[in-house]
Amino acid sequence: GGGGKAWPTHVVCSDSGLEVLYQSCDPLQDFGFSVEKCSKQLKSNINIRFGIILREDIKELFLDLALMSQGSSVLNFSYPICEAALPKFSFCGRRKGEQIYYAGPVNNPEFTIPQGEYQVLLELYTEKRSTVACANATIMCSEF
Ligand SMILES: *[C@@H]1O[C@H](CO)[C@@H](O)[C@H](O)[C@H]1NC(C)=O
Ligand SMILES: *[C@@H]1O[C@H](CO)[C@@H](O)[C@H](O)[C@H]1NC(C)=O
């Protein structure tokens, strides 16, 4: 408490003009995240690894993403990851206290990251609006 300690900054990409860093913004825990291959040209199915200890049951799980550039909001995005009737991933339905680990593809739009520096806020939360994970990231994309 008081001042609050910050979690370490993790490097996801630092290669070929693309740098992606993230930090957990959940005061209770840090988590691991990596991507198989960093590229400014995002393929439609990128392989990721993600590991976390669950703070909540995740019968339903949602992702909110807010993208900012130079202090201005660029994009807000909300995406269901686990729905009771449509569990998209093997870890959907796991319980509080369990450790989950996912390595595999995620479905994302094919996309070329424009040159620039971006701030991203990510939050995973349940149907009760309880936070499961929170991260803030910085993306720096240069010409080379
Ligand atoms: C996360 O946010 C904190 C507080 O605003 C900031 O100091 C830090 O640089 C950010 N980390 C990343 C990786 O963007
Ligand atoms: C994204 O959400 C924030 C906070 O609710 C809001 O201030 C901002 O205007 C939104 N941005 C866009 C691009 O809709």
Short characterization:
With 144 residues, the protein is mostly beta strands. 0% of the residues lie in helices and 58% in strands. The chain has no helices and twelve strands.
Cα-atom radius of gyration: 15 Å
Order of helices and strands: EEEEEEEEEEEE
The number of distinct helices, counting runs of at least 4 residues, comes to 0
Give the assembly state of these chains.
single chain
Fraction of residues in H or I helices? under 10%
Explain what this protein looks like in three dimensions:
This protein is mainly beta and 144 residues long. It has strands at 10-15, 18-24, 32-35, 41-42, 45-53, 61-69, 72-83, 86-87, 99-107, 111-112, 116-126, 131-141. The strands form 3 sheets. Strands 1-2-12-11-6-7-8 form a 7-stranded antiparallel sheet, with no helix packed on it. Strands 3-5-9 form a 3-stranded antiparallel sheet, with no helix packed on it. A two-stranded antiparallel sheet has the order 4-10. Strand 11 (116-126) and strand 12 form a beta hairpin. It is globular, with a radius of gyration of 15 Å. It starts with 9 loop residues before the first strand and ends with a strand. 8% of the residues are buried. The model has no long low-confidence stretch (mean pLDDT 93). One 2-acetamido-2-deoxy-beta-D-glucopyranose (NAG) binds next to strand 2 and strand 12. One 2-acetamido-2-deoxy-beta-D-glucopyranose binds at residues 66, 73, 75-76.
